[in-house]
Batch of 2 targets.
Target 1
Amino acid sequence: MFSESEWELLRNIIQNGLWKAIGETLLMTFVPTILAFVIGLPLGVVLVTGEEKGIHPLPGWLMKLLNFVINILRSVPFLILLIVVLPLSRLLVGTTVGTKAIIAPLVIAAFPFVARLVETSIREVDGGVVEAAQSMGAGTWQIILKVLIPEARPALISNFMVALITIFGYGAMSGAVGGGGLGRIAVNYGYNRYQPLVMYFAVILLVILVQIFQGVGNVLVKKSDKRIR
Amino acid sequence: MIEIRNLSKTFSSGENQVAALADVNLTIPDGEIYGVIGLSGAGKSTLVRCINLLERPSAGQVIVDGQDLTAMSPRQLRQARKSISMIFQGFNLLMQRTALDNICFPLELSGVKKAEARKRARELLELVELPDKAEAYPIQLSGGQKQRIAIARALASDPKVLLCDEATSALDPKTTQSILQLLKELNRKLGVTVVVITHEMRVVEQICTRVAILDHGQVQEEGPTAQVFSNPKSDAGRRLVLPDGEKIHVLPENRLVRLVFNGASAGEPIVARLAREQGILLNILSADTRSIGDRTFGNMVLGLPLDETEAARALLYLRELKGVTAEEVTEYVQ
């Protein structure tokens, strides 16, 4: 089905740099996801608590601006955003190609998405519980840290996995414009040089990784959710 | 003591303004179990939520132990709320925490050390008779158990006041009984003032020493439970206490007398005795009495005999009964 030269190339890739590519892919997935949560978690919380009827209302214009910016960033297609943001990468890490260069665009593409995911997770928390905390004299920070986030924990973990897998997909896509990892192998060898065997191999690896992420995520959610008997 | 002065709360939705509370005045003495009863929409939940300012009143004052909550800064208010606890119809437990950690929650908010908080929480679990449920999560508890944990949590901060917002409305009758008994016991043991918001008369009858009837956002009447329930003076009170139905204007051939039982000993066969001892036959037109302890409360409407002298004798007899007041009426509620 595949020629000897294709198998030869695949062997070559597996022996030289497959592990490096997997490592890059994991780096390009976890680092941006975590950074996107560092920005997106507080924003998502503010989107709920800062509302007019929230526990700590913020000025209406500020909330409108926040929502507007998030919506704008979310509506720009990832590849376009990637290209627009690459100069920032040059500023931050001195290059626009490779694994490191792709992290900043990934974070910028992902944090508005993460903010929305966090927002919906926090909204799931029963208002009555927040009210109970208020009736006990809890302040805004105490409610956020001791009620909203812990009570939303299962939804947050579940949405973390959603974000992780989305960013993983973006990362693979970035192979097309100089990103590293398995995505680059799939695009460079498989697509550009028309080596279907290598492309299938890389794609299968990507699929396996997603399955592992989702599987681990499901276990974590189940373990963390005390509403399941 | 809780003093509610000229309290009003208006909700506005767009153009519409709805007055949930209109100029409510109430004084709730220390150590009392105080009932606020009303049909849904009467404003009772708004009232209780105004007591700890979960709902900010549109006008008026809420004074707890001489301190005006409406005049406090947010920080002072948070501090004051620690001595005014609240339990809810939906329990509102933290679903991701164990029962013990739920009880620790208000102590954590106050910065109590963890070991100390856990010790206190275990004592409270004993108090609500669930010592073996420390490590259970709310999902594993029944409704009654959840409310017990909520009560323990509410008591953790040593409050002076416990507000109960329809706290038994989601529970079955038997569980309701046990929760009411617990509240009564806690009131006696700890001296905590209990404010009970409910639409169920049985709840008020069983534990409240005083009651206020709320309707259309206003207090219609207020007083000792036995007095208010046996002889409701307001329309709203009568609608609540008497079986549902409309006022019927009877143009009777005979005169009517309304007996109000104010704690006559239960099992006194008044009508039968009138018949046997005096030979006077009375017609029972309506009756709604209930026993609280060994005494009877409620009222009964009797038709007097057509014969004027017999009617006068019957009236005289009835007026001399202990724990019963008799008055002539021209209409009755069926």
Note: The first helix of chain A runs from residue 4 to 15.
Target 2
Amino acid sequence: MKPIKQNRFFLLAVLVVLTGVFALQSCNSGNKESTETDQLAPKVMEKIVGEEVAVLTTPPMVPPPITRKTSTKVIVKLEIIEKEMRMADGVTYTFWTYGGSVPGKFIRVREGDFVEFHLENNPNNKLPHNIDLHAVTGQGGGAAASFTAPGHESVFSFTAMNPGLYVYHCATAPVGMHIANGMYGLILVEPKEGMTPVDKEFYVMQGDFYTKGSYGESGHQSFNMDKALTETPDYVLFNGSVGSLTGDNALKAKVGEKIRLFVGNGGPNLISSFHVIGEIFDNVYPEGGTTLNHQVQTTIVPSGGSAITEFRVDVPGNYILVDHSIFRTFNKGSLGILKVDGEGNKDIYSGKLDDRIYQPESGASQSMPNEAIPTEIKAKNKDERITAGKAVFAANCQPCHQVDGKGIANAFPPLAGSDYLNANPLRALGHVLNGFSGEVTVNGVKYNGVMPKQTISDEAAANVVTYVLNSFGNKGGEVKPEQAKSARK
Amino acid sequence: MVYLKGGTYVPLYSLDTLKSIVKPFQMDVYPVTNNQYLSFVLKNENWQKGKAIQLFTDSTYLKHWATSWSLGKDSNKIKNAPVVNVSWYAAKKYCEYLGKRLPTVAEWEFAAMASETKANASTDSGFYQKIVDWYAKPNHNHTLGNIGGTFKNFYGIWDMHGLVWEWTQDFNSALTSGESRSDSSLDKDLFCGGGAVNAKNLKNYAAFMRYAMRSSLKAKYSVGNLGFRCVKDVIVH
């Protein structure tokens, strides 16, 4: 969100005036687009000055902005590598990659550049491949010209005539399988006039994956054709793996910086509802084109399409990148984090200021006492405590720690068989009541997130911790409401 | 060699709706090995590495061999592995030298339809999935396994799937039908969604991958996982 919003009334007034002008023009000349460039006119080919080798980057990095003011010959060398890589903790997959990563290397050229493209198919690869760049005007987007057997290299060239952010992908039969195995990436054709400078640029690309085993099933997973045909992926991922953009891999920025995300979607099947939790996109170039949209919460990124989003980060926090088709985020892996450090600003965002009980029938709210709510049924024994705790868990803990208590890799630590929990249940009780943030190691894996303070009674807190201790393979035990009372800070 | 009495085979890509008739033929039980190919080049000097005509081979021809006339120190490791990095011209010559020829796509595919237990496993999705799984894995450390390491099919032929790609006589004909109709509208059919045009079985990913592989080749190419085996006509009296 921006601290200074545009004056909407002013904007509206301008729109009204403009609409009037256009209406007048259409009456007078019958050509309401007379002030715009004719997009369909033949493109003027620019003089090509010099030659350079393109800098290609691995996600989430983006090559530096282009500063030259002339068109040049750009040589792009992209190697196809079939390799086994991590898909999630304990899960591997044989990805087919452009340059060794999923998505493939980011390519950045300038409108008018003459691109000489070298597609190299590594000799150890099993299969022939090619590349269809959506930035190419010409049959197959280069697919036929770049069709390459293992151990060979194809060269073709094109002029990047249209500015925009374009997807590239493999188009060898069976095309869906090549894409499903990770063969896609982005090529940016910067407009001649360049792009507005920002402080940070990142490369994020979504893809859906179809594995033999279900989400999280460990071991090497192979491609499952039936799931691909029915479009029921087990994984929906940003940058090719669970955790590619969380923990140590989180995108990082400082308060006040302007951020530009080059967002792509390789598919092969799903359309992304791309959203950053806690931010509003000040600018969006929908579908990677040149139209500019403002104040966007969620933008659609089609399969085989892109979007450019820009925003200023005004207050610190962890901003979560999601596909707002939200089960994909909670259960299939499409989760990234933009970690913003710096000074807070209470005017923009206060955080929680107060904590009260809301009682509609009384017509007034009152402060929450630290005792149990009077109407609450108190558990008489451990079994009742466990039963009651299960409901508390479902209502408060389950969204993050998951119904099986296993948490979500790199985001929310497991409660199931948790060494951290079993070592000190009262510490866990404290986290429930007081919240917790910072680094913590659970079962050998580091997490660095925030657990909010749970506004529940001593009784409920004791019940839920007791439930967790007696579930998910934990060591058992009981926590009493008195202990919860003294654990409150 | 193994005798196959032939039959019908429906090509993945074909313009007519007729099945291809595969006449009786004999097929090598195994792909040709490095050792076998070595004996060939020792007797046919003009097919030795470094001496073969560049029109018929590329610069990586037999690149995994130490010299023109020996397999080098890896000999024991590779002598019984399928020979790879050979061009179509070279493979064709090898077969002809032994009074044989390369199989047609139809013959190769006909023999390859067989699983361990069935002559025609073309409706067995488990069989296809196994093949696709193999295609989906890159080669490991440049070395292939020895012949006879995968499975023996219904006909008694080994290693049709899971070891190497194999040259066929008409490997590049998927895109040019050979029929009377002009091919100009077909030329890029294997790409992207176009790959689905004219295809007979859209779920046979294994067949798609073989057709794509064959189409990516030129006759002088050498590829590190592409070998061959030979067939022979059967004279029916």
Note: The domain at 2-233 of chain B is CATH 3.90.1580 (paralog of FGE (formylglycine-generating enzyme)).
